[in-house]
Specification:
Elements lengths: L1 E4 L5 H11 L9 H9 L5 H8 L15 H14 L2 E6 L3 H16 L3 E5 L12 H9 L2 E7 L6 H9 L3 E5 L13 E3 L15 H15 L11 H10 L6 H16 L3 H10 L6 H18 L3 H8 L3 H35 L8 E4 L8 H11 L4 E7 L2 E7 L6 H7 L6 E4 L3 E6 L4 H15 L8 E4 L1 E2 L7 H8 L13 E6 L2 E6 L5 E6 L2 E5 L13 E12 L2 E13 L4
Parallel strand pairs: 1-12, 2-3, 2-4, 4-5, 5-6, 7-8, 13-14, 17-19
Antiparallel strand pairs: 8-9, 9-11, 10-11, 14-18, 15-16, 16-17, 18-19
Helix pairs in contact: 1-2, 4-8, 5-8, 5-9, 5-13, 8-9, 9-10, 9-12, 11-12, 11-14, 12-14, 13-14, 14-15
């Protein structure tokens, strides 16, 4: 594991912010917090106040988004005329939460509305001809597509030929040609002036609803109960947690904590977890919502999110929990087979991983790609058979743009889409080997030495005196953590650990005492042999809640023997 310290922020900004925070000498703030803020782009006292207390009035005017006026006009026209509106969304967490969001809002307005989630195996990702035909056959004259559609030029033309209008709400990178839709809401459009580019698909859907409400002279009170859906999507889609996403995540976490919808309450019961952070959502809700689309059908997840009956929700959540258990078993077996394939093909030393088997479950190949990276740290694609083509999920290593690498090999592909760290693609089976070699060649040319080893970044070296309840409470105010606002990681040098022992049924975890505090290292059992002498540690400062007793606890991120003991 490679250690690197986060770039030191401009000292002038740090000094100014430190002085602003310490105008009251009775409540001094450690200078390290000013450094943390400036390193996250928070440079003024006013910005810091907004950061620590995100409020709904920090949201941007939704009409700054390109085509928002056209989208609102067409939807309001449909509502006034009593048209049937179909909500179409992807089968992952971002897509299903977005569908539940828009459906809930329109249904409460008395609109004749329904929703459609494509079958992962029969229709694939994004807008499908089957879904559009369903809309036409059932007299839906308007489709609102969420978390998909930005590259669906042919599908949108097909919808137009059937007399079905389309409003697209997406957040993925557009292609060279935009679909011929009534309106396309996507902050990543090159011609879109919207100031915040990192919304998830559900977030773009929320902006649409915000625009409808404000266009009719109302505040956003009616939308507050829906922010839980946006928070779950923000966490699951791994988008920036700064700017508007920070506001929406905070609002949604408050709803989830104080008054969770029956579906989420039931899923949390299955997970046996409470929600206090985005991390909790990613460990409890997101895998289960995803499991519905991976193992069965995404409509199960939408139905659960829409139910207002706890008893019914608990029954549905139990079924989804079984999907999740099936998913775990399946992704483990596919991972084992993929690792064996790498060995059998003698590809342990390549710069990329590209594996394929026609019988691998399409619903788990993204998870398997992530698992393979833990064994072979390099850009990874896992293919399986999908209808007449092969489909793949791609995952990348830190700092390497896998979307651009796939784009460089696009001559071999039918379609592709995604982000720098995760993407999906499809190709003809006859093109698989050519693509595999082209991808390996491109990765070999563009992969830098620093991409080949996992990296853990820390903020700064601290003195043990920094570890205190007061500073922990201040660190809590930095949440939610995620992209652009990572949980602060600190370095402690020349530590002599005490009471070192292994814990867990298989002794995989390390526990010790460090400067008077408990230290827990999940998965660091093998590091116990390095703890006899003094060590350098990378840790986060957290809290352990056991039997109603709360106490500070350090969580180990990495450990190495000190150079000078």
């Amino acid at each position: 594991m490679r250690w690197s310290q986060r770039d030191k922020p401009d000292s002038a900004w740090v000094d100014a912010l430190y002085e602003a925070f310490n105008q009251d000498p009775t409540k001094p703030l450690d200078r390290n917090f000013s450094r943390l803020l400036v390193s996250r782009g928070i440079k003024t006292y006013a910005d810091a106040l907004s950061f620590f207390k995100p409020e709904i009035d920090q949201l941007h005017d939704p009409f700054l988004m390109k085509d928002m006026d056209r989208a609102v006009s067409r939807i309001k026209q449909g509502i006034a005329a009593g048209e049937r509106i179909l909500i179409f969304g992807d089968y992952d967490v971002d897509g299903t939460t977005a569908v539940a969001l828009a459906y809930s809002y329109l249904e409460k307005r008395g609109v004749e509305v329904s929703y459609y989630i494509p079958d992962r195996y029969l229709e694939g990702y994004g807008l499908s001809y089957q879904g559009i035909q369903f809309a036409s056959d059932n007299d839906f004259s308007l489709i609102i597509a969420l978390d998909c559609g930005i590259k669906s030029t042919e599908e949108v033309d097909f919808a137009r030929s059937l007399g079905v209008d389309m409003v697209i709400c997406d957040h993925h990178t557009p292609g060279d040609v935009l679909p011929n839709a009534v309106a396309i809401l996507d902050p990543k459009r090159l011609d879109c002036p919207y100031p915040f580019k990192e919304l998830c698909g559900c977030g773009v859907g929320f902006k649409l609803l915000q625009a409808i409400e404000t266009s009719e002279g109302r505040g956003l009170e009616s939308l507050m109960p829906l922010t839980d859906l946006v928070a779950v999507a923000i966490g699951a889609d791994v988008v920036s947690v700064m700017g508007e996403n920070r506001v929406l995540a905070n609002l949604g976490l408050e709803v989830l904590t104080k008054n969770p919808r029956p579906g989420f309450k039931a899923l949390l019961g299955q997970a046996k977890r409470d929600v206090v952070s985005l991390t909790d959502l990613n460990f409890s809700l997101a895998p289960r919502i995803n499991a519905a689309g991976r193992m069965k059908q995404g409509t199960y997840a939408v139905s659960l999110m829409l139910t207002d009956n706890l008893s019914a929700a608990e029954k549905e959540a139990k079924a989804i929990e079984q999907f999740n258990l099936d998913r775990r078993s399946t992704d483990q077996s596919v991972s084992d087979e993929a690792l064996q394939q790498i060995i059998e093909l003698g590809e342990e030393d390549r710069n990329s991983t590209v594996v394929y088997h026609p019988d691998w479950h399409k619903g788990v190949i993204g998870i398997v790609a992530s698992r393979l990276i833990s064994s072979y740290y390099r850009p990874t694609l896992v293919f399986t058979k999908s209808g007449e083509y092969l489909a793949a999920s791609a995952r990348s290593v830190q700092g390497y743009d896998i979307y651009s690498a796939i784009d460089a090999c696009s001559e071999h592909l039918i379609q592709f889409g995604g982000h720098a760290y995760a993407a999906g693609l499809s190709l003809k089976e006859s093109s698989y080997q050519d693509f595999k070699e082209a991808f390996e060649k491109h990765v070999t040319k563009t992969l830098k030495p620093e991409h080949k080893e996992p990296e853990v970044t820390y903020d700064y070296i601290i003195d043990p005196s920094f570890i205190s309840q007061r500073n922990f409470r201040i660190l809590n105010r930095f949440e939610p953590f995620g992209p652009d606002n990572p949980e602060p990681v600190f370095r402690l040098n020349k530590v002599q650990l005490e009471a070192v022992r292994l814990i867990g049924s298989e002794g995989k975890h390390l526990k010790a005492r460090c400067h008077g505090f408990d230290l827990i290292g999940f998965g660091f059992g093998e590091a116990i042999e390095h703890t006899k002498n003094k060590v350098d540690l990378l840790v986060t400062i957290g809290e352990n809640n056991w039997n109603g007793k709360r106490q500070l606890q350090l969580q180990l991120k990495d450990l190495r023997e000190s150079q000078e003991n």
